[in-house]
Structures are given as structure tokens and as C-alpha cells.
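Worked example 3 (structure in, sequence out).
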């Protein structure tokens, strides 16, 4: 059983990550060269904007903060551990991370509710979109679960996940760093790799070329300049 678990860990946390990274780099390059104009978030704001605001704004602010926290823990784990030497600072970091994680999840649930309840949005939602939404929902929900039931993530991420990721980057994978982690954490890591591999085939590619400027842009007003009588004729 131990040997089987070792092979399973090698498959899930070595083979899958490298396949995902190859798909990510080759897929994004190919899509940009072959379908440049598809590098868009395919915004549905003009179809419905009231619910859109209450979902997209907390989701984007939350996810950007959470990703920034993961990146810092990966790049400078020693700084995170030094920060955590003071209990108060550790509590502030953990509570803040959980708060932003919950904000991201709530915003995403609002996005899904809007997408499911609006017939116009349903018509422009592809099967790939639903796969993406399922992966994102699981990633966010499992992240909040891990933060609640496996606390002090900033510390154990810096001491286990960061060395594991660096071993992959150095092409010398050391799966032992994550082998002993709880399965909830393992599933969270595995789903992250699935998201990375699926990335080139989704609307997420827009973040590579557009750094979310609408987070601070002025509100836009969309006006329809269409003759209602002509519209009725077209519908017939």
C-alpha cells in the first residue's frame, strides 16, 4: 500500500504538474498566434450589469489578493516564516487570508447565480465555461475548507508546498514534501494543476494581456441605438 501510494503521488504531483505546464505554455502560445482575437474575458456586462457588479468586484479583488499571498509564500518563504514568529502577526495574516478567501468564494457564487438565472447569459455560456466554473468553485471551496480545518497555512505552505514547487521548477521533483499532507490539501493542489492545464482553453487567458483595468475604471453606460420595429421584424 505504501508503494502504491508513492506511485500515486508521483502520478498526481509530478506527472500531472508537468503535463499541465506544457499545456499551459504551448496552448497559450498557440492560441495567441492562431486566435489572437479570442484573448478576451468575453464579458457579459452589457447583457446584465446590476448583479455583475456584486459578483465580479469581490471575486476579482479577493482572487488577486489570494494569488498574491500564494506567490509571496512561494518566492520568499523565509520572509513569511519570519513574519509568523510573532503570534499577533500570524493571527492577522491567517484571518486576513481567510477573509479574502471567503470574499472570493461569495463573489464567485454570486457570479454563478447570475449566470444560471439569466437566460441571455445561459445562451452565451459554453460547456468549457461550465467546466471552468466547476474547477474554480472546487478550488475556492477547498481553499476555504483547508484554511478553516487545517489552519496556519501560511506556515506549512512555506515549509512544505514551497519546497515542493521549487523542486518542480528545478526539474528535480521531490514529492515527499507533499506526500504527508492531508488529502484535502492534496486535492486543492491537484485541482490547481488541472486549472493551469485547462487555462489556455478558457476565457481566463485575458489576464495575460489585460491586467484587470476595470477594477478602477469609471462606470460604463451601454445604450441600444436600434429601432424596436426593426427588431420585431428580425425576430419574426
Amino acid at each position: 500500500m505504501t508503494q502504491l501510494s508513492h506511485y500515486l503521488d508521483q502520478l498526481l504531483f509530478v506527472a500531472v504538474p508537468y503535463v499541465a505546464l506544457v499545456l499551459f505554455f504551448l496552448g497559450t502560445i498557440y492560441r495567441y498566434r492562431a486566435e489572437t482575437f479570442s484573448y478576451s474575458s468575453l464579458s457579459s456586462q452589457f447583457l446584465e450589469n446590476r448583479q455583475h457588479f456584486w459578483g465580479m468586484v469581490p471575486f476579482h479583488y479577493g482572487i488577486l489578493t489570494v494569488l498574491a499571498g500564494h506567490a509571496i509564500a512561494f518566492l520568499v518563504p523565509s520572509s513569511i516564516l519570519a513574519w509568523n514568529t510573532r503570534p499577533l502577526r500570524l493571527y492577522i495574516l491567517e484571518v486576513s487570508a481567510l477573509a479574502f478567501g471567503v470574499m472570493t468564494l461569495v463573489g464567485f457564487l454570486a457570479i454563478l447565480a447570475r449566470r444560471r438565472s439569466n437566460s441571455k447569459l445561459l445562451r452565451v455560456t459554453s460547456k468549457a465555461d461550465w467546466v471552468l466554473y466547476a474547477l474554480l468553485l472546487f478550488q475556492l471551496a477547498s481553499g476555504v475548507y483547508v484554511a478553516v480545518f487545517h489552519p496556519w497555512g501560511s506556515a506549512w505552505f512555506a515549509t512544505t508546498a514551497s519546497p515542493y514547487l521549487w523542486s518542480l521548477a528545478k526539474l528535480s521533483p521531490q514529492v515527499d514534501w507533499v506526500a504527508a499532507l492531508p488529502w484535502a490539501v492534496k486535492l486543492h493542489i491537484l485541482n490547481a494543476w488541472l486549472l493551469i492545464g485547462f487555462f489556455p482553453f478558457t476565457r481566463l487567458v485575458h489576464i495575460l494581456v489585460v491586467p484587470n483595468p476595470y477594477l478602477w475604471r469609471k462606470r460604463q453606460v451601454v445604450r441600444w441605438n436600434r429601432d424596436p420595429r426593426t427588431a420585431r421584424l428580425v425576430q419574426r
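Notes: The mean pLDDT is 84. The chain has one domain: 2-215.
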